Amino acid sequence: QVQLVESGGGLVQAGGSLRLSCAASGRTFSNYVMAWFRQAPGKEREFVAAITWSTGSTYYADSVKGQFTISRDNAKNTVYLQMDSLKPEDTAVYYCAANSGSLVWRIPKQYVYWGQGTQVTVSS
Length: 124
Fold this sequence. Notes:
With about 120 residues, this protein is mainly β. The protein has no helices and 11 strands. The protein has strands at about 5, 10-15, 20-25, 30-40, 45-50, 60, 70-75, 80-85, 90-100, 115, 120-124.
């Protein structure tokens, strides 16, 4: 059974940084795409970033390009999202997601496995 456990969320002032972690377990993820999505109150869940576990190729939403960095640690089976220069509009619940294969989808319904989410709140 695949398990994804996020951590690292919290309250931060605008301009600050946070690093989210997603610990993955339950199988070998070498042929998986790992992604981060976020959902703000009253809004749909949106794609943030993705990484292919095998090659480390990265993909970003235009809204976070140059601000967020996704990475992975193979030894720890963990994916990270480094978030810098945070803005109030980055406030959301951030979810880790996983899907087998090499296609990088930017829509939530294509991902089979999800974490429970971690709250990120950026104060102005």
